[in-house]
Design brief:
By secondary structure, the chain is mostly beta strands. It is built from no helices and 27 strands. The chain has a single domain, classed as Beta-galactosidase, Chain A, domain 5. The chain is 0% helix and 40% strand. The strands form 7 sheets. The protein has a 9-stranded antiparallel sheet with strand order 10-11-12-13-27-23-22-17-20, with no helix packed on it. Strands 16-25-24-21-18-19 form a 6-stranded antiparallel sheet, with no helix packed on it. A 4-stranded antiparallel sheet has the order 1-2-3-4, with no helix packed on it. The two termini are 29 Å apart. The model has no long low-confidence stretch (mean pLDDT 97). It comes from Celeribacter halophilus. InterPro entries: Aldose_1/G6P_1-epimerase (IPR008183), Gal_mutarotase_sf_dom (IPR011013), Galactose_mutarotase-like (IPR047215), GH-type_carb-bd (IPR014718).
Length: 335
């Protein structure tokens, strides 16, 4: 089902597309390829955070909520890097750092609906050479689909692909915030991350070196109950693998309601962000009130942050002969 969601400040229409399969439904916006809402029949609230108002997203306080961020997600130190011997300079938007490709990243783009069925939508976007400081004429495709079979959990799948006509950098992430209880915060939720290593960060949130999680507050292999009062905060990349394109378990999130989300991805990393400093200002979320700190947990499947500036990190270089591809699945189980 497709409907008008709202109009951007420049007058362009944004559509909301709702997919259905069994007990699962997902609503996708053509603006930012945003996962705006996700519902399970019998659960009286959405499981991912969003807003019913386009103003919340259109350069608003919820601009990253559910969006695809990129073409290079996360941070690039000093807003510069070197690609094939050429220094690329970007416009910083987090102090001296480039975050999520700047103020005009994928999350601000109006995507084209290329294919649509009851259970799947394919969105496409063309990026011209030089936009945001990144080389290459690029085409990005995002396919969201839902399935719900009697012998398997209800599942949301996202497949992202990209091509370029010149060497470039590519690392796209879905930036959904998950809240499985319909409550103001994720206090009491249980999070497990299938990672043996993580990336500590410096004062500017730039990763330093690959570090074992063992013996640290980042050892989430056996699961951990999230508390806003905990001293340990999370806005870090967990190293799932050095390999790209191989599907692997990433995380399990279980709400105090007993609803569980299992996540797996082909991406080599998972950024875990506890949303401690995040809010929606005066814009309402789907519960009808503004979102506050710790409102959800962002679990962002992606390559590792600042990868072009770290020779030992999995590369995010995309050549003209290559196709970027990331697949992520979210499975939902009720008690």
């Amino acid at each position: 089902m497709k409907r008008l969601f709202g109009k951007l400040e420049d007058g362009r229409n944004v559509e909301a597309i709702t997919l259905h399969a069994g007990d699962l439904s997902a609503t996708i916006l053509t603006y930012g390829a945003i996962l705006n809402d996700l519902r399970l029949r019998g659960v009286p609230y959405g499981l991912t955070l969003g807003s019913p108002e386009i103003r919340a997203y259109d350069h608003g306080p919820m601009n990253y909520f559910g969006a695809l961020v990129g073409p290079v997600a996360n941070r690039i130190a000093k807003a510069r890097t070197v690609l094939d011997g050429e220094t690329l300079h970007f416009e910083p938007n987090e102090g001296p750092t480039l975050l999520h490709s700047g103020e005009h990243g994928l999350h601000t783009e109006l995507w084209h609906t290329a294919a649509l069925s009851e259970t799947s939508v394919t969105l496409t976007l063309d990026l011209p050479d030089g936009k945001g400081g990144f080389p290459g004429n690029r085409t990005v495709t995002a396919q969201y689909s839902v399935t719900d079979h009697e012998d398997a959990p209800a599942t949301l799948t996202l497949v992202i692909t990209a091509t370029t006509d010149a060497p470039t950098l590519m690392n796209i992430a879905n930036h959904s915030y998950w809240n499985l209880d319909g409550t103001p915060t994720t206090d009491g939720d249980w999070l497990q991350v299938h990672a043996e290593h993580y990336l500590p960060v410096d004062a500017q949130m730039i990763p330093t070196e690959i570090t074992p999680v063992a013996g640290t507050g980042f050892d989430l292999r056996a699961g951990h109950v999230l508390r806003p009062t905990d001293a340990q905060r999370y806005d870090h990349n967990f190293c799932l693998s050095q390999e790209d394109r191989k599907m692997k378990p990433a995380a399990v999130l279980r709400g105090t309601s007993g609803i569980e989300m299992r996540m797996e991805t082909t991406a080599p990393g998972l950024q875990v962000f506890d949303a401690a400093p995040i809010g929606s200002g005066d814009m309402p979320g789907h519960r009808g009130v503004p979102e506050v700190g710790f409102c959800g947990v962002a679990l962002e499947a992606q390559h590792w942050p600042d990868a072009p500036n770290h020779a030992t990190f999995p590369s995010i270089r995309l050549g003209a002969e290559d196709t970027y591809r990331q697949e992520t699945r979210w499975q939902f189980l009720t008690p």
